[in-house]
Each structure stands twice: as structure tokens, then as C-alpha cells.
Design brief:
The chain is mainly beta and 69 residues long. The protein is 10% helix and 38% strand. β3 and β4 form a beta hairpin.
Length: 69
């Protein structure tokens, strides 16, 4: 099975080639509610997580969304 390395919140992990962002998050047991995903310095719209595939050497950060102000 071919795998690629990505950085998730500063930790290097291995994921299968062609893994969507959503599938990667689920495999890491990340609750998909109330989080924002930043890939390569840009926010990735949640509506595209199931379509966008992880790429080798991606740098992905997960942020908790907090309501209020």
C-alpha cells in the first residue's frame, strides 16, 4: 500500500495515497464538528473536505472554532 507523509498539527503521520482530508481526520479520531482546517496556510472550506485529497508533505493544522467574542 502506498502511503504519503503529512504534518498534522506538527506531528508527522502516514496516510494512504488518495486519502481525502475528511477520511484522514476520521482516521485520526478527530471530531469534525466545530473545527477549522488550514492546509498550507489557507483555510479549507468544510464543504470540500471529502473531495480534497491529502498531498505528500502537506502541512495541516486543526483549529477549534469558538463562538462568541
Amino acid at each position: 500500500m502506498n502511503e504519503i507523509s503529512i504534518s498534522l498539527n506538527g506531528q508527522l503521520i502516514q496516510v494512504p495515497v488518495s486519502t481525502s482530508l475528511e477520511a484522514m481526520l476520521e482516521a485520526q479520531a478527530v471530531a469534525l464538528d466545530s473545527i477549522a482546517l488550514v492546509r498550507g496556510g489557507e483555510v479549507v472550506p468544510k464543504s470540500t473536505w471529502s473531495e480534497v485529497e491529502c498531498q505528500a508533505d502537506d502541512v495541516i493544522e486543526i483549529f477549534g472554532v469558538v463562538a462568541g467574542g
